[in-house]
Structures are given as C-alpha cells and as structure tokens.
From TrEMBL:
Protein source organism: Ancylostoma caninum (Dog hookworm)
Keyword DNA-binding: no
Identification of the protein by name: dolichyl-phosphate-mannose--protein mannosyltransferase
Pfam short name (any one): TPR_12
Keyword annotations: Endoplasmic reticulum, Membrane, Repeat, TPR repeat, Transferase, Transmembrane, Transmembrane helix
Record region (Disordered): 62-82
InterPro entries cross-referenced by the UniProt entry: TMTC_DUF1736 (IPR013618), TMTC_O-mannosyltransferase (IPR052384), TPR-like_helical_dom_sf (IPR011990), TPR_rpt (IPR019734)
Amino acid sequence: MIYTKYLSFDWSMDSIPLVTSPTDPRFLASAVFYSILLVTGYKLAVECGVVEKTWKLLGVDKQPHRSGKHSGRNSPSKARNKEWKDTARKILLALSLLILPFLPASNLFCYVGFVAAERTLYLSSVGYCILAGLLYDFCCSRLGRTLTVSLALVVLTLHGTRTYTRNLDWFDEERLYRSALELNPPKAYSNLGRVYAAQLRLDEAEAAYKMALEHRPNMADTWYNLGVLYQERRNPTPAVNCYETAIKLRKTFATAYLNLGIVHHEN
C-alpha cells in the first residue's frame, strides 16, 4: 500500500523466494519492523488504558505505568493530555485495522495456500487510510496547511495514477493474468490456460499450461486441466499421464480419478 509498483492478482506459494536464513535482509528488516510495531502498540495501549483494563478483566491487581502521567512542574495540562490520549486511541485503532484483518491470511496460524493478495488487503487499507489522515493532521500542525496540501496532492496524484493503470489490468481475466507473468509466472500461466481453454484457443491453452508446469511442476490442478484439454482433443495417452501425475500430487483428487476412469473406459 506504500510502494505499489509490484502488484499481482495472487502471491501464491513459491512466487516469493523463501527466507532460509536469519541473516536474510528481509528477515532482519521484518524483525525490526515488527519489534517497533509491538513496542509502539503496547505503549499506545498503555496510554489508552487498554492494558490497565485488561489486567482488571483478568483479575490481576497490577497497575501498569502510565507514561502520560508525570508529577511536578513539567506535567502537561489536562487538555493536552486528553488530546494525546485521543490521538493514541486513533493510532491504536488504525494499527488494529491494519494488522488484525490480515492475520487469517498470513499463514501464521493456518495454511491458506497463498502469501498475499490484493483481495486480502481491502479491510486493512482502512487502517492505512486512518493513519494517512492522522499524518496529514500532524503535518498541518508542523509544516503548515499549504505545504501539507501540496504534498498530499502529489501523493494522491501518484496513487490515483497507479490505481487507474491497475484498473486497466483488471479489465478482463486475460489482461489481469498477463499482468502477473513476470511476478508470478506459474499461477499466471495456469490461469491463462483456463481462459484460453474456455475461449477454445486450445493450442494457446496447452502452451500456457506447459509454461506453468515448467516453472512449478507440482501444481496438481494444472496437470488436471492439461489432462482435460488432451481428453477433449481425443488424445488419451497424454491425458492419462496428466491425470496420473495430478493424482500423485494430490491423492484425494476425486475428479482426476473420475476422468482417468472415463479415458480408460473410452479407450
């Protein structure tokens, strides 16, 4: 949502190189980012009184330190303290909306079959928009409204242009899948094969399926779809090979068993 150059209809498994070492820069950057996020979230929760209320609900007689309260002449005024608490609540809400809706699709708690996709970020984008609004207010108070509005217009223009060009990719299925050929070739070619097959462009469909399997030969659905294509073209031998490969990759592939039986029965 911040840097929108690389977009794909689906980031399936193996489309992003795996992190295999704790020294991988991506792992280190993620560790630093999430550490900062956790510390920030905890401090905001303390400021908002969420931690204190949680302890009370758990029946624990523990009063966490409230960083917003200080004694002495340097103590902020009640009005300013209240304003900061309101801001802290908004930031905490934004971070919650940004993170929590994405967790079910994060593969952290259960396998979902893909890494990330635009469709899983819609609700999370609400939190992003709230943070953007808070940042706008902050910049207005520090930089002045004129400069802030100018910067905001630049950002909106850039993101609006990217949204427009991305909408062109979503014009139809073929264009959408073609837009991901460089980012996620196995899934893109496989889906293109289905589109071509539905349009009876069978030679192109066969080539697309084979390209997908060259990139990732363990896709049972693609082997199955290629088998269906051969079966429809009255080419039983490669159809049988495709169905058998699909079954090896997925032992419970019922339709592959069914079509394999039909091919054997007809031949």
